[in-house]
Amino acid sequence: MTPVQEAPQAGRLPLCADLSRQAGEDPVGTAPHWAEVTVLELAVPVWAQLRTPDRWTAAQQAVFERLRHKVEASGAGFGLLMSAPDTPDQPLRVRHYTRTGRRFVRRDYQADLPQSEWAQGLQDTLIDPDRLKAWQPLESGEGPDIHVCTHGSVDAACGKYGVPVYQALRAEGLRSWRTGHFGGHRFAATAVELPTGLVWAHLSPQLALKVARREVAPGEIRAHLRGNAALPPLAQVLDRELLVQHGWDWLNASRHAEISGTEVTLTYSWAGERGTVRARIEEVRRLDVAGSSHKPNPVNVAQYGVMDVHHTRLSY
Questions:
Q1: pLDDT digit string, tens, across residues 106-164
Q2: InterPro entries, per this entry (predicted)?
Q3: Based on CB atoms within 10 Å of each CB, which residue in 16, 18, 38, 46 is the most buried?
Q4: Cα–Cα dist 107/76, whole Å
Q5: How far from chain centre, in Å, is Cα 122?
Q6: Secondary structure of 107-153 in the HEC alphabet?
Q7: How far, in Å, CA of 289 to CA of 41, rounded?
Q8: Taking the domains of the chain in order of start, what are their residue ranges?
Q9: 27-31, 61-65, 300-304: least confidently modelled range
Q10: How far apart are CA 151 and CA 158, in angstroms?
Q11: What's this model's pTM, rounded to 2 decimal places?
Q12: pLDDT of residue 316
């Protein structure tokens, strides 16, 4: 079900998410590519401090500088999410996800620190993980975590469409988190699902529930999948086709991608079988879409197609 679209008030720009849907934008290939993810459990007022570099202390600036050097040296992406805790004044907690061939693995920790020391959480998870030994490990619980962007102060679309999705998931007892901006607000309501790494676009409350419960076939919602954050962008395009072909069980496949120009080679191990799938991922068109609900300048985005697919099964 598509959320009701309101006519923009005089002087107000239309919501970027509405314009993306109207343009028929395919979101695949827009998911971030992460080797690991740190989720800082921070009360919503703390989100603004983390997103405002000119308010950082010297120590906080130093942490981000070290993280920048690590990214440049490794070429890997590191996700940083902020989610509102159930108890606003609880001590600093982190949920740390590390990527394996199949999915991300979650571990939870709590420190004897206030939330204002969020930079220590980044330092000890993404830069010096040995220091997590000093943190208190917590039970991670069962089931997927669905991180829904509700950051309306960054883009009004995420406030309008993200909050109802988060509330619907929570009302049904699913592990949903009210989460700060992680990119792609024109796809609101957008969500990161971990440990699978799937990133979703244009969710409604009803569709989000069906996705979380796997009550809908991947082929029916292919236009809502931005990609899998465990894979680079072009590989996300091919991986979506394989998810549509094989169904939800494809998420149990261990897979690795190699990119050469427009050619993607995806090596997998799944259901007692090893193999490779090779394909060309090409631009089939480009669209001018609104990149923000608050700025009039459009962004030019690529739309991708999968060409010349070759599947080779290998013996163990």
A1: 999 999 999 999 999 999 998 999 999 999 999 987 788 999 999 988 999 999 999 99
A2: Aim32/Apd1-like, Aim32/Apd1-like_bac
A3: 16
A4: 20
A5: 18
A6: EEEECCCCHHHHHHHHHHHHHCHHHHHHCEEECCCCCCEEEEECCCC
A7: 33
A8: 16-30+142-314, 36-138
A9: 61-65
A10: 6
A11: 0.92
A12: 57
Bridge partners (DSSP) listed for residue 79 = 37
Name residue 25's amino acid: E
- Please provide the size of the chain in residues: 316
Which residue from 254, 251, 165, 145 is spatially nearest to 208, judged by alpha carbons? 165
Q: Which residues pair with residue 273 across a beta bridge?
A: 270
How many C-beta atoms lie closer than 10 Å to residue 159's C-beta? 20
Residue whose C-alpha is closest to residue 235's, from 253, 259, 218: 259
For residues 228 and 137, give the distance between their C-alpha atoms in angstroms, rounded to a whole number.
27
Contacts of 239 (CB under 8 A, 6+ apart): 227, 228, 231, 255, 257, 266
